């Protein structure tokens, strides 16, 4: 009887929890063809300028962005193979050239170790996709480490020297820092080389030990992942250990707190942007059939990438099968604006701050690079608008047009 | 040149006259928030609904559209997805700027129905053109639509460029239309109303399978492709032309083409018959020449005055193309094409050839008068099958069967005179020839590469052909010398020849060689490839020569000239190719350098079996050689692009058996060739250069492209001639090895197009320069013959909307031959052709056109003018056409051509067409989908 009571209580609890959990799933309505437009000042405030020290040869180009580390800003310049390092108040420290590492290397900030890390394939070897899977399967064999090269700049060491490092398991398995001492792996591959057909789209590790897996799929022949390589997108929040994750070919955005996970948002798209049911059940016969499908259905949902939530807005990037768009969802009005349609005004110095590419986030603050000429032009044309204090001396020095200025901003609360 | 300057001035004046235009500027904002709307479409329409200009608003919502017509009611339409469109009429009365402030209101925040027709938009990596956004005549074809799209230029030679880049492949629903590679069959036939959209994208080049980009590891996408997507309801239809004409001088012509298509199959038949020298050609050419509407008509696709003689041509054929799959892109193909063509020509040619020939202290002038009649019949069958499963594989089979029979009779009378115009000799020749031949070939290509398993990548080509030739030739030749009567000869000879040859050639390129050899090791990024090339040729020739004995009245075998030969050549070349690429890409530019070196060993065996003892000769050669290639390309994004490549090749040539032991037949009175068994091998060094430039600026009104292509060849120990010229004009040539010969060839073009609203001005220039130095002996004197040819062609074309096309062109040709030895004479000739053309498509349904060619030749006294005029009227709702052609109105045309060799120059004048008038009626059956496309009154939708 006692056992029966416990069972009933448990069922009752579950019944109560279920609607609560269900009600947490919020819907984001998006009509890609008719996404609205609005003023930028309705979304963004707390704009602060961080003018960077003028240095000959450092110019802003189309694809530059700023990375925020514990003590520094740095601007990676892939084309010139250099990293420009600045203090948090814009003072220039050093340009670190990584040309000698080779064409493929790209700097990535590792928050956990406070280092700028370069991990790439060893150019002395040419690896096929199949080779990579074989190496991943035997990642612990020491000889497999020769296929990769790793370099790092320790930002705690003010010499900022590029030092050779040994590729680790995380580097070979493409695992990234999640929270605390937990790493995650979100790479999704199907291949006949895998002996075990069970794998998870999202896996967490601690000390190289598998902890938990979410979203099982067939590692050998899952229809939706055949002839492609996908990744879970993970977006941290302002709260440590709380993240949003989005899966490929899935309209649900999940929230993780520690090692628990639940559905938080659902992207509601018109039928023409939704994947047909057959996509999930009928496997593509070959890679070409998959490529044809992508080309012929360029505006069908592929995956949500960037995802950031504030009390009023949700800022997110949607990847379609052949297109990308960034949107802002306004919770109060249930409307979605396309970032391309959001226009600045003079209250924000006519600066297009919300753009599709080149925005970095750290906590609740966003960072974007702007050319000095945009500011010079604005204040030249609008002499009645007071120049912000932090820009006064910078603009008076008449900096070269392409000198970068960091704009820090927040979404309105 | 004067007429050209006059035309240029007139065009300049005309352009200036049209410069009186107006301008509209303004801004587009959200009515509620007053935020500027970027990328709003601002379109200006003419009263007939056609788009005059359109622009997308900038990031501040601003737009500025200039060069608008004055005193004309214009509709300004501003549209933006999700907003209610704004329409207003304006009329610009003077050359001032009108300003509009447009505030667009949201349709509905929750559900927005998009109705705006955006002319051009990006969909992923594909630029899409929406025909619905362009208001045009209901029967307008794709070519007329493309001419309305900003950034697209249709050149006068039919080439299409998009922002300066050449469209290299045009597809309809992902497949070549009617199986043809010529874009005009689609663009000049398919009506705009049958088109859903036109897509432009870069496609992988299948010729580069296995040669992936070293940096990205992906195949190289270098083909700008235009894909015309048909509307679902227009995926089946038919179109064509049937026409017949008759005129003075009993001139007639008839054309037929009918093409049908559905989603998987297309078929067409074509036929033509004329006695106007109009080239009918094969089935594809028949389709090209009978399109529905040609925005820029080729006024030279008429009776051909430049063709030698009077030719009665006929051709009839058909093509069937079937796709076994319904794919709408070109990744996957499974297609078979079968074509058959029967053609023939009855020709009557009279010609006069005047040659200046250099000879020591005694230049010779040779006049050759000839009359020839011939009748030729050909049957051609072709089959092509293509199967591709992705961009990484390619399987093609090509098969052809041709038969040809020809009967001809020719009479030639040759007179040779010395520098004092004294007759030295004469030769009268009568030839009757009957020739039957057939040819069969089979080609197989298979290429595959696999990113996962590179060791399985290879590329193979096999080609086999067989041909058979049987001919009978009766030649009566009477040679009379006026300096030495003992050299007089008379021959009545019959040649019965049977030739057969078999050729099998192939190459196998193993692109997985590096992976097999080095596994995962990258060898500093150097690509290795192993190729094997082989060739087997077997040819047999049996010639039975008999001389007619007029006494016995029968032929007797000439055992000196009758012969049988068999030749077998086996060649094998292993090739090791090494290549490496360097490239750099920034947001602003791309530059790339690639190097390739090939090491090869030519192994050759040449076996000769002959009824002539000396010609039984077996030879073997082994020759190590190398080739190199350097290619540099630079692209400045949205500005310009250029590339230059230089290549070097070295190879061995060994003297052919016919040069070692030539058969001497004294029936050739003036040209006797004697072999030389001591000839050595020659070595050929060849350097080639190719450079291209084109602008890629979408904002510029100018489109510029240019190319230079050149080669320099140096032959060491080449086979040249030692010539002895007889006073009678006889020339005896011995083959000899000289020290070296060199030849330089350059050809180049430069094109500029300038958009003037809906009008355009095009300048096309091309030229060719050829020079060569050949050492030889002439009459025992060591000499170096220098030859040179310079050809320059200019064409200036002005297109005023689609109403008026004016073109002016000039061709300058100059030839020279200069011997270095004293006592030998230099010769030169030249010709200049000035061309003017005009097409006026006004009033509606009526076209007037005219061409004038003025030809000046250094060898004729006064210039020749060829003036042709045409008037065409379209009726029966655009499906019927009545055309009147008036050809050679001045009745003074002559066919004249110049030529140059190392021994002199020659000018040839042949008979040809003379003045005639022709009336032609044509009917264009057309149906696309369920609704028949018929000409309707101009649409007025607003």
From TrEMBL, chain A:
Q: Keyword Signal: yes or no?
A: yes
Query: May I ask which residue range the UniProt record assigns to the signal sequence?
Result: 1-23
UniProt keyword annotations, A-Z:
Signal
Q: Which domain of life is it from?
A: Bacteria
Which Pfam family, any one, appears in the UniProt record? DUF5128
Name of the protein in its database record:
6-bladed beta-propeller
**Protein's organism:** Niastella vici
UniProtKB/TrEMBL annotation, chain B:
Q: Which residues form the signal peptide?
A: 1-19
Ordered alphabetically, the record's keywords are: Signal
Q: Which InterPro entries match?
A: CarboxyPept-like_regulatory
> So which domain of life are we looking at?
Bacteria
This chain's protein is named Outer membrane protein beta-barrel domain-containing protein
Q: Which organism is it from?
A: Niastella vici
């Amino acid at each position: 009887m006692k056992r029966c009571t416990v069972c009933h209580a448990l069922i009752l609890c579950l019944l109560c929890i279920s609607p609560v959990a269900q009600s947490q799933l919020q819907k984001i309505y998006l009509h890609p063809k008719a996404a609205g437009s609005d003023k930028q000042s309705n979304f963004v405030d707390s704009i602060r300028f961080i003018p960077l020290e003028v240095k000959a040869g450092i110019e802003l180009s189309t694809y530059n962005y700023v990375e925020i580390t514990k003590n520094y800003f740095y601007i990676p310049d892939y084309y010139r193979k250099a990293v420009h390092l600045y203090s948090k108040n814009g003072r220039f420290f050093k340009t670190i050239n990584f040309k000698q590492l080779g064409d493929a290397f790209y700097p990535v900030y590792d928050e956990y170790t406070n280092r700028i890390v370069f991990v790439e394939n060893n150019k002395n070897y040419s690896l096929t996709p199949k080779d990579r899977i074989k190496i991943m399967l035997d990642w612990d064999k020491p000889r497999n480490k020769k296929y990769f090269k790793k370099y790092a700049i320790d930002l705690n060491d003010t010499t900022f020297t590029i030092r050779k490092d040994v590729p680790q398991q995380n580097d070979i398995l493409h695992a990234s820092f999640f929270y605390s001492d937990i790493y995650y792996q979100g790479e999704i591959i199907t291949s006949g080389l895998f002996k075990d057909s069970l794998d998870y789209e999202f896996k967490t590790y601690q000390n190289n030990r598998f902890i938990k897996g979410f979203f099982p799929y067939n590692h050998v022949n899952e229809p939706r992942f055949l002839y492609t390589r996908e990744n879970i997108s993970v977006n941290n929040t302002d709260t440590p250990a709380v993240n949003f994750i989005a899966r490929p070919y899935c309209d649900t955005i999940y929230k993780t707190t520690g090692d628990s996970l639940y559905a938080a948002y659902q992207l509601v798209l018109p039928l023409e942007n939704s994947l047909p049911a057959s996509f999930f059940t009928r496997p593509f016969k070959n890679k070409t059939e998959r490529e044809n499908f992508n080309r012929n259905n360029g505006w069908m949902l592929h995956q949500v990438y960037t995802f950031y939530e504030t009390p009023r807005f949700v800022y997110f990037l949607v990847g379609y099968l052949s297109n990308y768009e960034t949107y802002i969802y306004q919770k109060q009005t249930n409307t979605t604006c396309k970032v391309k349609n959001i226009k600045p005004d003079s209250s924000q110095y006519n600066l297009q701050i919300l753009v599709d590419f080149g925005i970095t986030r750290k906590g609740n603050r966003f960072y974007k690079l702007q050319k000095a000429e945009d500011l010079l032009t604005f204040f030249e044309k609008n002499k009645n608008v007071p120049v912000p204090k932090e820009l006064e001396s910078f603009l008076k020095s008449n900096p070269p047009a392409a000198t970068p200025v960091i704009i820090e901003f927040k979404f309105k609360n | 040149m004067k007429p050209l300057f006059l035309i240029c001035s007139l065009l300049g004046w005309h352009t200036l006259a049209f410069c009186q235009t107006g301008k509209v500027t303004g801004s587009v904002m959200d009515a509620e928030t007053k935020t500027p709307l970027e990328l709003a479409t601002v379109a200006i329409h003419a009263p007939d609904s056609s788009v005059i200009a359109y622009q997308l608003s900038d990031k501040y919502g601003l737009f500025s559209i200039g060069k608008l017509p004055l005193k004309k009611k214009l509709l300004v339409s501003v549209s933006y997805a999700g907003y209610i469109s704004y329409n207003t009429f304006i009329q610009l009365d003077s050359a001032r700027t009108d300003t509009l402030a447009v505030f667009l209101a949201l349709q509905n925040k929750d559900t927005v129905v998009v109705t705006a027709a955006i002319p051009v938009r990006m969909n992923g990596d594909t630029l899409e053109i929406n025909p619905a956004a362009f208001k045009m005549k209901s029967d307008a074809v794709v070519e007329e639509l493309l001419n309305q799209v900003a950034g697209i230029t249709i050149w006068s030679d039919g080439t299409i460029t998009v922002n300066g880049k050449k469209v290299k492949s045009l597809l309809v629903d992902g497949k070549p239309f009617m199986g043809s590679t010529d874009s005009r069959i689609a663009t000049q036939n398919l009506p705009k109303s049958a088109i859903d959209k036109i897509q432009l994208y870069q496609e992988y080049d299948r010729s580069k399978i296995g040669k992936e980009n070293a940096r990205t590891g992906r195949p190289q996408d270098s083909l700008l492709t235009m894909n015309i997507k048909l509307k679902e309801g227009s995926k089946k239809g038919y179109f064509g032309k049937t026409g017949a004409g008759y005129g003075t001088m009993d001139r007639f012509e008839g054309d037929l083409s009918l093409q049908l298509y559905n989603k998987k199959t297309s078929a067409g038949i074509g036929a033509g018959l004329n006695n106007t020298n109009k080239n009918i050609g094969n089935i594809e050419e028949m389709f090209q020449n009978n399109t529905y509407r040609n925005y820029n008509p080729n006024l030279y696709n008429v009776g051909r005055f430049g063709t030698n003689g009077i030719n009665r041509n006929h051709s009839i054929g058909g093509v069937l193309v079937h796709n076994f799959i319904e794919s709408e892109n070109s990744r996957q193909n499974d297609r078979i094409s079968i074509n058959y063509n029967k053609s023939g020509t009855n020709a009557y040619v009279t010609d006069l050839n005047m040659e200046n020939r250099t000879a020591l202290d005694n230049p010779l002038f040779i006049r050759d008068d000839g009359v020839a009649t011939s009748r030729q019949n050909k049957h051609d069958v072709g089959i092509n099958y293509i199967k591709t499963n992705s961009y990484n594989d390619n399987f093609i089979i090509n098969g052809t069967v041709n038969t040809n029979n020809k009967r001809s009779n020719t009479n030639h009378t040759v007179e040779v005179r010395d520098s004092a115009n004294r007759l030295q000799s004469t030769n009268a020749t009568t030839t009757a020839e009957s020739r039957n031949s057939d040819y069969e070939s089979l080609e197989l290509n298979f290429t595959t590469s696999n990113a996962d398993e590179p060791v399985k990548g290879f590329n193979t080509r096999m080609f086999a052909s067989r041909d058979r030739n049987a001919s009978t030739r009766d030649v009566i030749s009477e040679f009379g010398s006026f300096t030495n009567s003992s050299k007089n000869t008379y021959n009545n000879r019959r040649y019965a020849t049977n030739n057969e040859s078999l050729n099998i050639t192939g190459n196998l390129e193993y692109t997985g060689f590096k992976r097999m050899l080095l596994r995962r090791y990258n060898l500093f990024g150097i690509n290795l490839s192993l190729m094997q090339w082989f060739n087997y040729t077997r040819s047999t020739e049996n010639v039975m020569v008999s001389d007619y004995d007029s006494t016995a009245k029968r032929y007797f075998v000439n055992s000196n000239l009758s012969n049988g030969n068999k030749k077998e050549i086996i060649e094998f070349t292993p090739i090791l190719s090494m290549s490496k690429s360097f490239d750099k890409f920034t947001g602003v530019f791309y530059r790339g350098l690639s190097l390739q070196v090939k090491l090869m060993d030519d192994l050759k065996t040449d076996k000769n079996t002959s009824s002539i003892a000396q010609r039984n000769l077996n030879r073997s050669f082994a020759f190590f050689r190398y080739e190199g290639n350097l290619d540099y390309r630079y692209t400045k994004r949205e500005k310009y692009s250029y590339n230059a490549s230089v290549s070097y090749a070295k190879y061995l040539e060994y003297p052919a058996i016919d040069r070692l032991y030539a058969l001497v037949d004294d029936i050739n009175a003036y040209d006797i060739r004697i072999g030389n068994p001591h000839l050595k091998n020659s070595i050929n060094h060849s350097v080639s250069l190719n450079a291209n430039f084109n602008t890629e600026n979408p904002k510029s009104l100018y489109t510029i492209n240019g190319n230079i292509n050149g080669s320099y060849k140096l032959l060491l120990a080449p086979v040249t001639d030692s010539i002895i010229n007889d006073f009678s004009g006889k020339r005896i040539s011995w083959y000899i090895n000289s020290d070296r010969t060199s030849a330089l060839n350059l050809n180049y073009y430069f094109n500029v197009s300038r958009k003037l609203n809906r009008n355009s001005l095009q300048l096309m220039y091309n030229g060719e320069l050829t020079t060569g130095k050949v050492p030889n002996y002439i009459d025992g004197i060591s000499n170096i013959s220098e030859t040179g040819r310079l050809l320059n062609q200019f064409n200036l074309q002005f297109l005023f909307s689609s109403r008026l096309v004016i073109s002016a062109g000039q061709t300058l040709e100059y030839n020279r031959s200069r011997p270095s030895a004293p006592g030998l004479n230099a010769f030169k000739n030249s010709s200049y052709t000035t061309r003017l053309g005009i097409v006026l498509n006004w009033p509606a349904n009526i076209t007037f056109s005219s061409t004038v060619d003025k030809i000046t030749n250094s060898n004729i006294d006064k210039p020749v003018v060829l003036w042709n005029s045409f008037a065409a009227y379209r009726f029966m709702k655009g499906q019927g056409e009545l055309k009147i052609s008036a050809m050679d109105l001045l009745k003074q045309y002559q066919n004249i051509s110049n030529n140059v060799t190392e021994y002199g120059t020659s000018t040839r004048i042949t008979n040809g067409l003379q003045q005639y008038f022709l009336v032609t009626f044509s009917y264009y059956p057309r149906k696309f989908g369920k609704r028949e496309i018929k000409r309707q009154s101009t649409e007025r939708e607003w």
